[in-house]
Amino acid sequence: MNFLRRRLSDSSFVANLPNGYMMDLQRPDSSTSSPVSPAMERKHPQPLQQTHSSSTGASIFSSISSAMKQTTQAAAGLIDHSTSPTPPVAQKPKILLVIDDAHTEWAKYFQGKKVNGEFDIRVEQAEFSELNLAAYVTGGCMVDMQVMRNGTKVVRSFKPDFVLIRQHAYSMALGEDFRSLIIGLQYGGVHTVNSLYSIYNFCSKPWVFSQLIKIFNSLGPEKFPLVDQTFFPSHKQMLTTPNFPVVVKLGHAHAGMGKVKVENQHNFRDMASIVAMAKTYATTEPFIDSKYDIRIQKIGSNYKAYMRTSISGNWKANTGSAMLEQIAMTERYRLWADACAEMFGGLDICAVKAVHSKDGKDYIIEVMDSSMPLIGEHVEEDRQLIADLVVSKMTQLVTTAGSALSPLRPWPAPVKPQTGPQLGQLSQPRPPPQGGPRQPQGSQPPRTNAPPQQRLSPQGQQPQSPQSTSPQQQRSPGSPQQVRAATGSSPVQTPKAGVFPPQQPRPPAQGRAPSQPSPTETSKQQPTPHPHLNKSQSLTNTFSIPESSQRGNTNEDEAKAETIRNLRKSFASLFSD
């Protein structure tokens, strides 16, 4: 032990030790655990040297193993980090603006519903009178809402993704003209139910009635019985009517407003003076002694028909007390609803109003859009149907927008041509390139006294041969056209220099006669020489294999390929300069 201490304390001795030797001495290993005496060290010097070399190799192996272990652990950590489940990104909810009065809370009908199964719906509800907006070309539509909730004024600003309109956008009553908001929503590109185009067209009842006249002319009075209505653009034309009593409707109003029953000519003239004061248009239609009113509503693909009978005796069935009853949905009523639902590009929600007279005839008098009031015992069901319709429209909008904004499929990357073999290197056989030109089979008439064409590969490659494993051959300047040609089915081999084997005549293509190629065509068929070929490659071109040899056994091909390799090596060493 004293000898070892003296030896280890000597700096020159420690400096001459192999790398990692002291580390191996400090490691509790079986080879260094037992003490070695100086006598044993002097008696067995060769095994000690072998022990030193083995310990050095073991230290190198241990360092490599530890480095590989650390690298493996790091790679495993990276893989675990990349494959670890990422926290789901919270999708921004879609904002739905419902324009309706405060009597109906629409948020509960959209609770738990998702757009496309991933977007929540945030419902904002207000009336037209509580809204203001600003629309931009690229920024969409920003809506400002000021509503009263439980005596507190709530002010919000948001960009709606969808709008459900359940109020009339225009009425001639004071302060009920909200057509500017409809224009702003259209300007901002906001999608609605019903469409903004149809809602803006519904701001004039005579304009809507003109669409009913088109349906009447198309279907006829039997299938679509329309009331006989007369339009007056101003009071000046209101002189008289052929029959009395008549119903005069002033301008654009709702819920029975602006409707007057005129019994005789004198009352009619008085009514004309009222129209002059209102400075608006008017319509007249014959008064129908009705037995009951009919209403056919359509919400999406759901149809309902109601019959309303006045109890109070008022000639307006929608005014005063009335008895409401749901009736069977007939094909006649369905035709009315479907015909009116095609107005202005399509109405998702609409209702047709008709009058059933005491003589048993029906008269269609009006059509309503998404602002129609819901009636009957199935109001909750109708509201749920409207909510489902809105969600389906929003989902369709999200899906359509996603497909429209999705990037185009990238173009496939071009195949890079592989570089040819360098001087003195053996060329290995390669499969034919994907983009290389192929010789069509049976599409050209047979040509006599013309050398077979060769199959060209991209620049830097040699002509391909699918049958043989011999190196590819290229044509050099000054050498005759003796290149192997590869086709899809039967490879044609070029014979040795100056010898042309008889070609097998092929039948001409259907509808074509065999023709002799002109000298110009023959010259065009010869490919241009490649400028980057060396001498060894040009010399090996002279050693081509006849066609019959390829049909032999594999041993002959291998022998000939080995011969070509040996000749190429010898020629490459001779002409390497």
Task: Explain how this protein is built.
The protein is an alpha+beta fold and 577 residues long. It contains 16 helices and 17 strands. It has a 5-stranded mixed sheet. A 5-stranded antiparallel sheet has the order 15-14-13-16-17. A 4-stranded antiparallel sheet has the order 9-12-10-11, covered by helices on one side.
Quick one: how many beta strands? Answer: 17
Radius of gyration, in angstroms, nearest whole number: 48 Å
Content-based structural category: alpha+beta
Number of helices: 16
Low-confidence stretches: 24-54, 78-84, 405-429, 432-551
Describe the biggest sheet?
5 strands, mixed
Distance between the termini: 69 Å
Q: Determine the mean pLDDT.
A: 73
Proportion of beta-strand residues: 15-25%
Topology of helices and strands:
Blueprint: H1 2-9, H2 11-15, H3 21-26, H4 30-33, H5 38-43, H6 45-83, E1 94-99, E2 114-115, E3 119-126, E4 131-136, E5 140-149, E6 152-158, E7 162-165, H7 179-187, E8 191-193, H8 196-201, H9 205-219, E9 230-232, E10 246-250, E11 259-262, H10 265-278, E12 282-286, E13 290-299, E14 302-310, E15 322-327, H11 331-340, E16 349-357, E17 362-368, H12 379-405, H13 519-525, H14 535-540, H15 547-550, H16 554-574
